Amino acid sequence: MTMSGRHDPPKTAKFPGYAKVVSVLLVAEFVGTFESAMIFIALPSMMHEFNVDTAAIGWAATAFLLVAAASAAVCGRLGDMYGRKKLLAIVLAISVVGSIISFTFGSLEGVILGRALQGVAGATLPLCLGLARQELPQDKVPNVIALIAGSSFLAGAGGNLIAGVLLQLGNWKALFVVSGIMGAVAALMVVFLLKSSPLARGPVRGIDYVGGLLFAPAVALVLYGLTNASAWGLLDGKTLGFVLGGLAVAAIWVWWELRVQNPMINLRLMKSNKMALTQLCTAVLGIGPLVAVGILTPLILLAPATDPAGLGVSPAVGGLVIFSAATLSFIGSPFSGKVAAAVGARRALLIGIVISFIGYSMMFWADNTLLTFIINTYVIAIGVMFAYTAFPNLVAESVPLENTSEGMGINTVTRTIFMAVGTTVLTMALASSTVEGTTVSTEAGFNTAYIIISASCVVAFFLALRIKDAPRTEASDPQDTAEARVAGA
Prior knowledge:
The protein is mainly α. It is built from 21 helices and no strands. The chain has helices at 11-14, 18-37, 43-50, 54-57, 59-82, 84-105, 108-118, 124-135, 141-169, 173-193, 209-227, 229-232, 237-259, 273-287, 289-302, 315-343, 345-365, 370-398, 404-431, 443-465, 478-487.
């Protein structure tokens, strides 16, 4: 039986159009992150138009988050089984349908349904990273993985910036028109510009429908409880009910996945030192710097200067600062990939942790002026970029090629869940000290948050030190590894 094209010796036959492949993957990932970020700035306008409260309009964001978290792992696995190009085109097409529903139905229910369908685009990152590893020369993979992951910073900031401009020019429906057009363009690029190169691993086994059906509600229940914990209270009965209920379903799911021969999500991948510790580091940093950069930065920039920690800049200036920091992260992301390629992704992660720790320590000690805050924000942006882009490269070093998108999906779910935990933890830290008679956080509240973030960096640093520097895993068995070496010769 002829093996996949990745085993063909001539690189010129296997890797034509390097820039074309990278461009398609960047556009596809931009769509997924853009759709995630674009809604937040539109929520006040939509709340006014639909005449609903914050809890009701919040579902426009929550519906996307819940579906995105589940689809990242499930669609990643399906992509590994049936072809990542095919699954990427499908999830982008579904997101286009979601955009159409959101701007044509004209009701809050229609927007929530559309946002849920858009949430399938949460699978773009693991699928794009899997395609990068599948389609590109081995020596290019770490740089491209870092670049694609780094594009998330630019897409997130760009989503807010573009959304702000569109809301000033028209109304919230324009966001879905633009996201629909972007999704359609990305889907067409995937279909016509990427080559189909399925992995020849023998006949595909049956789908683990039970595992897929159990995984989605387990993640959704936990995330829903955590995302509402700041409003309900961490120990409120509703919070505990959703979280504990989700954990109970998750326990049943774990039991099932470990007993079936061909699980939807292969938890046995977690047996390796590198994969397990990568998830632990992702969880710890998700509670700290990975989520803090998106919460604290706009809060400090846009809060009135009369507030203890506010700088009182205009939304335009605040958006410019955030966008410039995101641009710096995107531009610097290939350097993280070069570090991973040269000395391993563990070193890139350690660098990111140290820089993040320095940045938040500076926040703790520095005077709260606009100039020092911008400098610290840039330092933190570089640190978070190194850590964020190191994780997918660590996964690529941990799992066989045929499990790449699945492994990336597991990491995405871990990051999503613990960033939700981090949101709750940091919100509670800020609320621990407020100006008397108000809900405005004092400097002590922000310092508590900085201490939590710094502590997460310290814990993650020692966890990262324990990650073994094993070589990048290109195949699941010695024969495949030997053939991969021939292909790369």
